[in-house]
Design goal:
Layout: E1 4-11, E2 24-34, E3 43-51, E4 54-62, E5 69-77, E6 83-84, E7 86-87, E8 94-101, E9 104-110, E10 116-123, E11 129-135
Antiparallel strand pairs: 1-2, 1-11, 2-3, 3-4, 4-5, 5-7, 6-8, 8-9, 9-10, 10-11
Length: about 140
C-alpha cells in the first residue's frame, strides 16, 4: 500500500544563497501537515548541516503511540550515490539524494525488507519553511 504524506517543518536558523541552504533545526508543524491514513507523529525534530553538495542530518520522531523517539542520522551528499542511514531501529535503511532545482531535492530510501520511500523537499524563498512530500 502506498501512502502520501506531506508535512511542514519550520526552521530555527537558515541562510540564503543561490542554492537553498537546508541548514538549521527544523521542527514539524503537526497542525499544517497531512498524513492521510497514517498516524501523525507527535514530534519531529530534524537538524541539518548543508554545504552544497555535502549534507548531514540527524533527527528524532516521536509517534503518537510509542512515546519514545526513534532517532536517525545520515552523512553524505546530494550526488545520487547511496549512503547508509543509522537508526535507533536498525532497519538497514539507505538513502540517496538528487538536486531538482535551487530549492528542491528528491530523495529515495529503502530498508532491508524492501520498504521504499520517495520524497521531495522544498525550501521556501525566505528559507524559513521546508515542505517535505513523501510517498511510502
Amino acid at each position: 500500500m502506498k501512502a502520501f504524506l506531506s508535512f511542514l517543518l519550520c526552521v530555527a536558523a537558515a541562510s540564503a544563497a543561490d542554492v537553498a541552504n537546508m541548514s538549521g533545526a527544523w521542527k514539524l508543524n503537526v497542525e499544517r501537515s497531512k498524513f492521510e491514513k497514517n498516524a501523525a507523529p507527535t514530534h519531529v525534530l530534524l537538524t541539518i548541516e548543508h554545504k552544497e553538495p555535502s549534507l548531514k542530518y540527524s533527527g528524532s520522531v516521536t509517534g503518537s503511540q510509542e512515546g519514545h523517539p526513534d532517532t536517525f542520522q545520515f552523512a553524505g551528499a546530494i550526488d545520487e550515490k547511496i549512503y547508509p542511514v543509522k537508526e535507533s531501529t536498525d532497519t538497514g535503511r539507505t538513502i540517496k539524494f538528487k538536486r531538482k532545482s535551487d530549492n528542491e531535492v528528491e530523495s529515495w530510501s529503502s530498508d532491508r525488507n524492501g520498504m521504499e520511500e520517495y520524497a521531495v523537499t522544498r525550501i521556501s524563498g525566505d528559507g524559513k519553511t521546508m515542505v517535505r512530500s513523501m510517498t511510502v
